[in-house]
Known about the structure:
Blueprint lengths: L1 H16 L4 H9 L6 H9 L35 H8 L2 H9 L4 E5 L24 E3 L17 H5 L7 E5 L7 H12 L3 E3 L4 E3 L5 E2 L3 H13 L20 H19 L9 H5 L3 E3 L5 E3 L3 H12 L10 H11 L1 E7 L18 E8 L3 E8 L9 E2 L1 E3 L5 H11 L5
Parallel strand pairs: 9-10
Antiparallel strand pairs: 1-2, 3-11, 4-5, 4-6, 7-8, 10-11, 10-13, 11-12
Helix pairs in contact: 1-3, 7-8, 8-11, 8-12
Amino acid sequence: xxxxxxxxxxxxxxxxxxxxxxxxxxxxxxxxxxxxxxxxxxxxxxxxxxxxxxxxxxxxxxxxxxxxxxxxxxxxxxxxxxxxxxxxxxxxxxxxxxxxxxxxxxxxxxxxxxxxxxxxxxxxxxxxxxxxxxxxxxxxxxxxxxxxxxxxxxxxxxxxxxxxxxxxxxxxxxxxxxxxxxxxxxxxxxxxxxxxxxxxxxxxxxxxxxxxxxxxxxxxxxxxxxxxxxxxxxxxxxxxxxxxxxxxxxxxxxxxxxxxxxxxxxxxxxxxxxxxxxxxxxxxxxxxxxxxxxxxxxxxxxxxxxxxxxxxxxxxxxxxxxxxxxxxxxxxxxxxxxxxxxxxxxxxxxxxxxxxxxxxxxxxxxxxxxxxxxxxxxxxxxxxxxxxxxxxxxxxxxxxxxxxxxxx
Length: 408
């Protein structure tokens, strides 16, 4: 009986998740309101006791899978759940369950996740997000966090010029999937941030790790027009010498675009751009009070919201561009839906000393992507970060074909 009901629920999920009201469902979930009925039912019916047919191939602990707010331990060794997912659950619904905290575990989400090593200069918001619950990162199942997985069918069908193969790897979510993926790739490549030269470096002397919180602060500074080595507090200085007129105008334009998105119903983040631009006293998502009557106060409020880890702000195409400029890298985004390089305006100029591969899953979730030269699962190394000289010709050809750009 439970299997029949579950299959009916999955059919309903296939219809609703691709429908026109999907954005409304996403907004309800993110704002903490009642989740869709089919998800509530699925989480109740889907318990460990009801999947006894998996016991032959997995070591399963007893206990139900509870909805939002529970502290149930994740399925640590339930490898064959991947087969259940492929048969009864769409990729979009699976990404929803994994990424949007509908399934929780007791592991705390830290702002320095993905690339930090605790080298002393911690992130601004590490303590504020320590109490958040984090999605279970595929619940540690099968090819879970840390293992390379196959790309979407669109990419599997596309043959790379010159051979080779692309893979993807889950690096975590909790609203930080873009930053976690980038941080994991940078850390795997052995790169760190040189605060003197303002660039990525392989040296461990005078450098710091590139963590999630660090990159979010880079995005915040880039959004309001500050250089990576400038402090956010300079926005409130009387002279404003560190904040140029050109940067002020560019910030105002960006802020007005976000406010227009909010008024049109396309804004899904948890802070209000229009409330910041109205002026007066504004309370940020972390509880800080900012006087937004001045232009510097408005910029500071935006910067504090954008630099907060978690689901306050999801990484977007704008964040990718700002990080490219701040870190001096080129980010190649591979779309799971189209099987093509996502044309977000990837930078090709010579100041891009490194290029990073990122996978964009169903338009809602970022993962780390990697390229294997040989194309055999047991063959060459899968790499995500390349220097300009070592960038494979296959990746160059993909970018030039899909984005109509050339490398300088």
